[in-house]
Amino acid sequence: MTLTQVTKAGLHDIALDHVFTIGASGTDHYTFQGEGLNGTVNDPTLYLTRGKTYRFENGTGSHPIRIQSTSGASGTAYNTGVTNNAGSGTVIVEVQHDAPDVLYYQCTSHANMNGVLYITGALADGGVTTAKLADDAVTDAKLANSINTAIAANTAKTTNATHTGDVTGSTSLTIANDAVTTAKIAANAVTHAEIAADSVSTSELASGAVTTVKIGNEQVTLAKLEHGTSSNDGKFLRANNGADPSFETVTSTTINNNADNRVITGSGTANTLNGESGVIIDANGNVGIGVSSTTNRLHVEGTTSGSRFGVDTSSSGITALATTNETNADLEHVIYDGRSSFGSSVNVPICFHTNGKANEKLRFDGTGRFAIGHNLNGAADYNRLVIHNPHSGSSWMQLTSTASGNGINTDGLAIGLNSTNTGHIWLRENADLVFATNGTKRMSILAGGGLAFNNDTAAANALDDYEEGTWTPSYRYGANVTTTGNSNGEYVRIGNLVYIRGYLQNSYVAGGQSWNADIAGLPFTPNSGGYGIYAISAYGTNWSYGSGMYGIIANVSESHASVFLRANNSQGHNSTPTAYNMTNTTATYIAGCYHTLGY
Fold first, then answer.
1. Would you tell me which CATH number, out of the four given (2.60.40, 3.10.20, 2.60.90, 3.30.420), belongs to the domain 466-595?
2. Are 61 and 88 in contact (CB under 8 A)?
3. Residue with more model confidence, 5 or 572
């Protein structure tokens, strides 16, 4: 090749450009090949020189490469001297002399594909920062001797390790403001002995610097407090709402309106105490409100004439919430324990009254009896619970524990309109639950079980069972016969009486068979007490009757849970149909009643 064959363009391609060929490793890495790289390298850190031009031959197609001044997928593009930035083909970077010290390359489609471009060459003033110096890179050998000397002298004056002499008032040592901080003083290094007498005055202490937690227990003595004089002996030190405390004389307080047993109260506007005439507590512990004396544990009377609340410990009992006057005969509302004033009962009932003593509304007595609207004073009233409404025809409800009237002959519950049993319900222990109207039993649930009506309570006549369900009819002796799936049966049982209904249909039967066409599967076995035969209605279709046969009838015999089919003939119904008389479509319907063996 002659010299004339070398073109300018060829010189540019070879001498001026530095070429990197770029590929991709999935979506996580760029791969680089080119000068300074040993083979193919994932996301290498490259060093570019100011004033040089670099070509990035990006052959990936789907991974555009962008030069940035900040890192990351959302970094800022750097376009100065960059051709086809973020393009999918070749990107050319002509490094400017004022380019930043660090640039970045980034795939605009995949965040993980990126790397760093360090820019080398001359640095502008301030270009060398601490961030650009490696740890321990600046050594003594790289500093001027004069700088090392100054640092050593300064260290001797400020470092505890090299300066062990006392710090005195000598002017030869100057400590800058705030140079000695608490962090530079060892724990417990400054004691009382190190502080000159009177050297720290209150003006030199910050406000609030001496707090209670900084003062040892019992460290403030009386000598540190204001001294008293002969003129203020016997006085106490008083706080004055933010003003300086002062010594005050203890003066006596007058108790106005005082008398025996009165409660003492203070005045909100004067330095006096008052004996309240409306509240007393006597030596026996009795409390009175609105009274001048009391013999009750608690005695309250209002300003309205006669209104009263009392708790009495005398033999007259307990009274409460009286609203007319305090005599027992006229109490409007009262709770009373009836020890002597409300009858002679020794059971000590608690009574609730309204509108006077005679109108008792609620009572508990000592035997556990409870009454609402009914007085339990009478010796003949033995009920545990009595609810009586005198305003509605003497309606009542009683829960008894011994013999009593009102239709109850032993322990039990009775609900009625009056004592003559006009209408009531009663329940007795080990006896019947009775419902009655107009004094006559209408229905009873017997103690031994069963439901009886009116005055008939015989167990044999009681309705004691009801049941309904289904059963499956089948041929008792059936062989070589198939029935359809819609064969079915139902029953209703009331006591020992059973009503049945059934349906049975063939879908196939072998010819020439002689077994009786009886129907089995009844839900209950008939009674064997000599009742004999129970007639059952029957209806058949598609039967092949023999000579002299005129249709089928049915019956149920005692002790057999089957329906016996019979055929009419000239002598009655003694002919028995068999499988021989059935066809592939024979159907039989039965219905009737029979008596069971019991339950």
1. 2.60.90
2. yes
3. 572
| pLDDT at position 86 over 80 | yes
Tell me the three state secondary structure of residue 15. Answer: helix
pLDDT: is 237 or 567 the higher one? 567
Burial, 451: exposed, middle or buried (Cβ in 10 Å; 0-12, 13-18, 19+)? middle
User: Which residues are CB-neighbours of 79 under 8 A, at least 6 positions away?
Assistant: 67, 85
Contact 264, 276 (CB under 8 A): yes
Residue 197 — φ and ψ, nearest 5°? -55, 135
Contact 307, 300 (CB under 8 A): no
State the Cα–Cα distance between residues 448 and 429, nearest whole angstrom.
12
Give the whole-angstrom CA distance, residue 542 versus residue 584.
Answer: 8
| Cα–Cα dist 238/70, whole Å | 72
Q: Looking at domain 3-122, what is its CATH homologous superfamily?
A: Cupredoxins -  blue copper proteins (2.60.40.420)
- Rounded to whole angstroms, the maximal C-alpha distance in the chain is 159
Closest CA to 262 of 241, 289, 243: 289
Instruction: Count other Cβ atoms within 10 Å, centred on residue 455.
Output: 10
Q: Is the dihedral of CA 321, 326, 332, 337 positive or negative?
A: positive
Cβ atoms of 401 and 411 closer than 8 Å: yes
DSSP code for 219: -
**Sequence ranges of the chain with CATH classification 2.60.90:** 466-595
Q: Which of 20-29, 90-99, 365-374, 395-404 has the lowest mean pLDDT?
A: 395-404
- Kindly state the average pLDDT of the residues 497-513: 94
All CATH 2.60.40.420 domain ranges of the chain, comma separated, are 3-122
Burial degree of 88 (CB within 10 A; 0-12, 13-18, 19+): middle
Q: What is the pLDDT of residue 475?
A: 95
**CA 463 to CA 527: how far, in whole Å?**
18
In whole numbers, what is the pLDDT of the chain averaged over residues? 75
pLDDT digits (tens, 9 = 90+) for 327-383: 444 444 455 554 434 444 445 567 676 665 566 777 766 666 677 766 555 444 545
Contacts 24+ apart (CB under 8 A), 24-29: 24/60, 24/62, 24/63, 24/113, 27/63, 27/109, 27/110, 27/112, 27/113, 28/110, 28/112, 28/113, 29/112, 29/113
The continuous run of DSSP H or E covering 287 comes out as strand 287-289
Closest CA to 562 of 513, 524, 507: 524
In sequence order, what are the residues at sequence separation of 6 or more whose Cβ sits closer than 8 angstroms to the Cβ of residue 238?
A: 245, 246, 247, 248
Q: What is the pLDDT of residue 304?
A: 61
Residue whose entry in the numeric block shows the structure tokens 């202490």? 205
Q: What is the mean pLDDT of residues 463-471?
A: 89
* CB-CB neighbours of 224 under 10 Å: 7
| Continuous H helices in 99-246 | 145-158
User: How many angstroms separate the CA atoms of 319 and 296, rounded?
Assistant: 10
Q: Classify 308 as helix, strand or coil.
A: strand
pTM of the model: 0.38
Per-residue model confidence (pLDDT) at position 482? 95
